[in-house]
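USER:
I would value a second opinion on how I read folds in token form. Give me a protein, with the fold worked out from its sequence. Write it directly below this note and I will take it from there.

ASSISTANT:
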Amino acid sequence: MAPKSQKLPDKYSCKFIIRKIEECSMGYPRVSAFMDSDENFMIYRRFGFLYSRVLLSKQDELRELEDSLDDMDRRDAKESSYSKKCLMSRAKDFNREAASGQETRRDLLKKVETKLYEYGQILLQAQQMVAMNKPSDRDHLSLQNFMENGFQENGEPVRPLIKEDTEFVYRKEDLITLRPGRESAWLDAIVERALKMIHCAPIKETSLKTTNPNIHYFTKQRVDRFVTLIISSLMLALLIVPTYALYRVSSLDKKASNATIIGILLASTLLFSAIISLFTKARRHEILGASAA
């Protein structure tokens, strides 16, 4: 806690060191600044085709080594008793001298080990790439618009990169985003669009990122608070409205209200399941269990 004689600084009185997009040179420096300015714009290629080609090549190389190892095993099984014993003893097999023009099983297994390690590393990388999130249509369109006409010079749109270097943005099926998947990302987009419509002013940190009036930034904390408020309101309404409706119906004639009560219970259960599906990443059995409860 600060002494009484010391005045605490204002929240925004300190200076922020933020890279402004327009201060970066036109070209890759400016594109890099834009893509780094918000997690929604961190969209890159995963090169799925190239991963497939490399994996298929490594796979066939391993097949050839596997065939060579099988041939060596079969050859030793048909030769002298010592060769047969080498199949039964790793030490004898690794210590024997290679015949002229032939490699030892030890050398062959070293090649197999190296190729397996390379294959496994690339395979895991490819799996991680596939598991990464796809960019939303909205984020992809924002990046595409920036690449096509992100800046104006003499009233004309200017591409920050040449046509060949911009081509990656059109390979939509091969794009991934570094943005972590959130359970209500689509609701985040609606909230940001609403904040933009009501001309909500950005805070100091985001306003320093650019002077371009066509680029709008909203802090994740503000959006998350708004989304949390919406979800909390929906859950509160889902709890109160069916209870109140059942109370009102139960106060009427019981014979006339049985079908209505069942209808209210069914509608509230379906609505509850729909909200869980939309706002969370719950699996089917989890939704079924929550609805049954």
The mean pLDDT is 77.
